Amino acid sequence: MSQIQLYSAILCPFAHRVRLTLLEKSVPFESIEIDLQNKPANFHEISPYGKVPVLKHGDNRVWESAIVNEYLEETFPNPPLLPTDPIDRARARIWINFADTRLFATTGKLLYGRDSQPAALLQELTEQLLFIEREGLAKISDRKPYWLGTELSLVDLTFYPWFEQVNVLEHFRGFQMPPGLARIQQWQAAVSQRSSVKSIANSPEFYLEHYGRLAQKI
C-alpha cells in the first residue's frame, strides 16, 4: 500500500487539483474513489467534513484542497510550485483564494443551488472570468504561459479543473464564455499540454454523462 492515500471523487475539481499536484511532484499515491452519493459508513472517521479530498500520509490526515496542496508543497518541495519571494507567494495565495471563494463558489451555487433565476449567477461567473483576464493573467504573466509567469504553480493547478469541466455549465445551465478572454485561452492551452494534466484528463462527453447521472440523484 502506498504511504500516501488520496480519498477522491472523479467529478470533484478540488480532488482533481490535488491529483495534479501529486503528479507534478512525482509523488506515488493510492487513489481511493468515494461515491459522494453513497459514502462508506465510516467516511466521517476519515473526513471530518464528509468531503473529498482527504490526504492520508502515514498516520496524518489533511483535508481542504488548498491546504492539502500547501502541505504537499512543504513536504515535497521539489519541484517548487509556489514562488519563494514573499509578495509573489502572497499573490499566489490571493488567486487561490479567489478561485475557491469566488469562481468555484459561484459555480457550486449555479450547479447545485435551487435558484429558479440563475441569471445573476451567470453574470457573476462572466464578471469573474473577465476579472481573471484583466487583473490576473494579462497583468501578472504578460504573455508567459502560466499564471505567475514561466513556471507552473499551484495557482494553475487550482484553476485548471474548472476549465476542464466548463462544458457542464454550458450544457446544463446555459453558460457562455464571454468574448475577450485571449490570455485565459492561451493559458488553458499551455496547461492542457502538461503530462500530468493529460494523464488524468476526462473528455467533455465524460463530464456530461456523469453530471447527467448525478442530476437524476439529487
From TrEMBL:
Domain GST C-terminal positions: 85-218
Keyword Cell wall biogenesis/degradation found: no
Name of this chain's protein: glutathione transferase
GO function term, MF aspect, one: glutathione transferase activity
GO cellular component: cytoplasm
SUPFAM superfamilies associated with the record: GST C-terminal domain-like, Thioredoxin-like
PANTHER family: GLUTATHIONE S-TRANSFERASE OMEGA, PTHR43968
Gene3D superfamilies per record: 1.20.1050.10, Glutaredoxin
Swiss-Prot/TrEMBL catalytic activity: RX + glutathione = an S-substituted glutathione + a halide anion + H(+)
All residue ranges annotated as the GST N-terminal domain in the record: 2-80
InterPro entries, A to Z: Glutathione-S-Trfase_C-like, Glutathione-S-Trfase_C_sf, Glutathione_S-Trfase, Glutathione_S-Trfase_N, GST_omega, GST_Omega/HSP26, Omega/Tau-like, Thioredoxin-like_sf
One protein family per Pfam: GST_N_3
Documented EC number(s): 2.5.1.18
Keyword Oxidoreductase annotated: yes
Keywords for this protein: Oxidoreductase, Transferase
